[in-house]
Design goal:
The structure is a homodimer of 364-residue chains. The first copy, chain A, is α+β, with helices and mostly antiparallel strands and 364 residues long. Chain A has two domains: 155 residues, Thermophilic metalloprotease-like, CATH 3.40.1830.10; 203 residues, no CATH class. Chain A has twelve helices and 19 strands. In chain A, strands 5, 6, 10, 11, 12, 13, 17, 18 and 19 form a nine-stranded antiparallel sheet that branches. A five-stranded parallel sheet of chain A has the order 2-1-3-4-8, covered by helices on one side. Chain A starts with a helix and ends with a helix. Chains A and B meet through strand 1, helix 2, strand 2, helix 3 and helix 4 of A and strand 1, helix 2, strand 2, helix 3 and helix 4 of B.
Chain lengths: 364, 364
């Protein structure tokens, strides 16, 4: 077995999910994530955890959803009982076709997800972590050769997470103390209020309220957004290519938008509900192991020298206890490159210029 | 998709497991049983059942068991809760290597199984059915080409089960009414008591107390076995080739044995415990879709013109309520060909000669 697969498994089990002896672990395995699953099973065995493997196949989901009449039972007892009794939920993405469910209607998908909201909430109540095994289909989506993609993915995943967490803590401190963020770049001059909000140091570990591997971003929940922003990183959203999105905000809401490509999708998203017109997240990518866009949000939004903004739902972890932030049925991330002609200010002080943080400068 | 895969799924869901709307179904998927799993998911969706897919991989089991220290937690809560809340448990066998767990020690395996006895009992309390997807590794084990093996497997699986159940009911009636069975063949003259025992008409459906697809046998729990038997169908037991087994019984117990090949394994089995010296099952194969041995007990023991005897544990379904039959940690089937020079008698009346039943004759 490729030694990197074994290291990936150990980072996932030990750093990310903090698995201990006797933890009841659900391991969701994508059809092409088998090799990673074998390495994770070995690591779980070494730790004395209890393993149940589930099968996360888009083709099975598609077949089931299309055949069903759409009137789904709420929270089936067997699956609910499984997640209620799980301590840890590890999801190993990796199918044979990233478009495996492309012909399932949005309505059918929503009905299924809504019927399973308690299962989802219980799963999010475990020490859950999502990762992917680098597969050929993900390489294809990234427009990369398979071995090239493997190198890319492991560069992103096999970081010195402890040291990155320390670095990101400096940004978190700046955001936690600040009241207003301003982002200035080509086609962008945007201000957001962040007073009273708590930034998450997303260091790929449940110990940091972080549930993605790779991670490597600091994010918070902004409000009262004003100005305009150009989000230039190309991505696929709802099966459509989206590129060069421009959003204009007044009193916290999108008042105008256009896009070089995929403007219809942006319009659709904004029309979802009131919350979809407001930002739920300001995220700052700090994973410098990610050096290019691969049309996979798990990686793209963590890329160093990028900032992302999400239309829609805010994360509770960013809000004071008991306060609920922007609510919406959607959470759609859009990304902008800040490596050139860019600066990020907190309360008027520049904290990042052209991708380099001031605390990095001072360390040099 | 091969239409036979779809038919297999429908037989499994409708005939075998009797799935109804809102049933909570666990679908255990072998790594190479993906295509059958997709067809089963579609059928379950059509029936309005609730699907949770688990991943049944020998390689994952091997990695986990070898890495673990062997001191397993008893009945982990998440897996126990899953099976406790399941109505139906469908197991789709089909890996890439039938020897995937060959280097896991017997001790480690036993410790794992013993720690999970309540999970097993709960699973056996559902409407459970085991089947296999014809894979390349099963073709290899059968010494057959892949497409040849597919034809073989579907001939066995896609029967007219209703009509076979009616045919087998005639044999069940003869055994239920009888007190003593005698099997006479080359190297065989064996008598067994079956008074008060109930034969199972194993018609590949939970409605018939039958949990294998394919099935197609009638079996009961004999006692007081006397005489000798030669079991000439070659098979692999515990990784060893076994062939030409001869057992001699007195007062229900094996008093002598030998084998052309694999005698050591037979000795090992007989030494397991007291129950392993006695028969737990007399089974009569009636699936004429199975026309050759493929070294897979799921198929071999159901083959038409064969009789099998199991050393060890008897099935409760054959015994009067509250009565427990032969008990043992093992249940090992051995098979004999009765297509020539053979007869089967119940209370002195011949019921089968050279594989043909008297009730078949009278119908001709």
């Amino acid at each position: 077995m490729d030694e990197r697969v074994r290291e990936h498994a150990e980072v996932l089990v030990d750093w990310s999910a903090r698995v201990e002896a006797s933890d009841d672990v659900v391991l969701s395995v994508g059809p092409d994530a088998h090799e990673l699953a074998v390495a994770v099973a070995e690591t779980l065995g070494e730790r004395g955890a209890n393993l149940l493997a589930t099968y996360g196949s888009g083709e099975i989901t598609r077949a089931y959803l299309r055949a069903h009449d759409g009137d789904f039972d709420a929270n089936p007892a067997h699956e609910l009982a499984l997640v209620e009794n799980a301590d840890v939920y590890l999801s190993l993405g990796g199918g044979r076709n990233t478009s495996a469910t492309a012909d399932v209607t949005g309505d059918r998908r929503r009905a299924y997800n809504e019927a399973r909201s308690e299962i989802r909430d219980r799963r999010l109540g475990t020490r859950w972590v999502s990762t992917v095994h680098p597969t050929r289909s993900l390489a294809q989506q990234a427009n990369m050769a398979y071995e090239e993609y493997q190198e890319f993915a492991y560069d992103a995943i096999l970081r010195d997470w402890e040291s990155l967490a320390e670095e990101m803590a400096q940004l978190k401190a700046l955001l936690d103390e600040g009241s207003e963020v301003r982002l200035v770049s080509r086609g962008t001059d945007l201000t957001m209020r962040i007073e009273g909000r708590t930034a998450v140091n997303s260091a790929a570990s449940v110990a940091y309220d972080s549930h993605n591997l790779p991670s490597g971003e600091v994010f918070t929940a902004p409000s009262a957004t004003e100005g305009e922003v150009t989000l230039d990183v190309p991505m696929t959203i709802r099966g459509e290519s989206v590129r060069g999105v421009r959003l204009e905000f007044a009193e916290g809401e999108v008042v105008d938008y256009d896009a070089e490509q995929g403007g219809d999708v942006i319009g659709e998203i904004i029309e979802t509900d009131d919350g979809a017109r407001r930002l739920g997240e300001l995220g700052i990518g700090m994973n410098r192991g990610i050096d290019r866009y691969t049309d996979n949000i798990l990686f793209d939004e963590k890329m160093g020298d990028t900032v992302h903004l999400a239309l829609g739902r805010a994360y509770d972890a960013c809000l004071p206890d008991g306060e609920s932030g922007n609510d919406s049925a959607v959470h759609v991330d859009l990304i902008t490159d800040v490596s050139e002609d860019s600066r990020l200010e907190v309360d008027g002080d520049v904290i990042q210029r052209n991708g380099t943080f001031t605390f990095e400068d001072s360390e040099v």
